[in-house]
Amino acid sequence: MLLVSQTIRLRLRQTSTTGRQGTVATFGGRMKPKRTILCVDDNEQSLSIRKVLLETRGYRVIVCHDAEEALARFRKGGIDLVLSDLMMPGIDGAKLIEQIKALSPRTPAILLSGKVRIYDQNTQADVFLPKGMHAPAELLERIRLLLVRKRGPSRPRPQAEAGAAHAEVA
C-alpha cells in the first residue's frame, strides 16, 4: 500500500512540475482534463482566497484584475466557467458577462457582489451570489452543477462495458 501511495504522489508531482497544465492524475493511470475557471475581481484578497479554494478542489484558475484583461484572456479560449465580481472599475461584472455570453452563450457565469445583496437587474449571469452570504461549499456546488449542465448528460457506457459490469455483479 505504501508503494502505491508513493507512486501516486510521484505521478502528481511529475504532472505539476513538467508544466503540463490542465491535467490531473486519477487512479488507473488515466489523465482527465481540469476545468478552467476565469476568476475576475479587483480585490486582490478576494481573488487569492477564491483561487486557493478552487485550486484545492482540482480546478485550474486563471485570475484577472479587471474586465478588459478578462475579455482578452477569454478570447484566447479554454475557459469553462467565468466567476466575476459585480462592482469593478471600468466595465462592471454584469457587462463583462454580457460580452462573454455574446462570444460564447454556453459558457456558464457566476456573478458575485460584496456590496449588493439582491441583484434584480436583468443580467445574463447563470447565478448571482452575494459575497459573505453563502458558504464556500455552496459556491463549489454551484460551479459543479453549472459545469455538468454545460457538459450535458453523461454518455451511456458501451454495451460491452455494461455487460462486463453486470457479469461481475452476478
Which helices and strands appear, and what pairs or packs with what?
Layout: H1 2-17, E1 23-25, E2 31-33, E3 36-40, H2 44-55, E4 60-64, H3 67-75, E5 81-85, H4 93-103, E6 109-113, E7 127-130, H5 136-151, H6 159-169
Helix pairs in contact: 3-4
Q: Can you walk through the features of this model?
A:
It is a single chain. The chain has 170 residues and is α/β, with parallel strands linked by helices. The chain has two domains: 26 residues; 119 residues, Rossmann fold, CATH 3.40.50.2300. The protein is built from six helices and seven strands. It has a five-stranded parallel beta sheet, with helices on both faces. The chain has a two-stranded antiparallel ribbon with strand order 1-2.
Keywords:
6 helices, globular, 2 domains, alpha/beta, Rossmann fold, 7 strands, 5-stranded parallel beta sheet, 170 residues
Question: What name does the CATH topology of the largest domain carry?
Answer: Rossmann fold
The CATH homologous superfamily of the largest domain is named Response regulator
Strand content: 15-25%
Order of helices and strands: HEEEHEHEHEEHH
Tell me the strand order in the biggest sheet: 4-3-5-6-7
Helix proportion range: 40-55%
Give the integer mean of the pLDDT values.
Answer: 77
By CATH reckoning, the class of the largest domain would read: Alpha Beta
Task: Please state the structural category.
Answer: alpha/beta
How far apart the termini lie comes to 29 Å
Domain unit count: 2
Low-confidence stretches: 1-27, 160-170
Q: Biggest sheet: strands, sense, closure?
A: 5 strands, parallel
Taking all Cα atoms into account, the compactness measure Rg is 19 Å
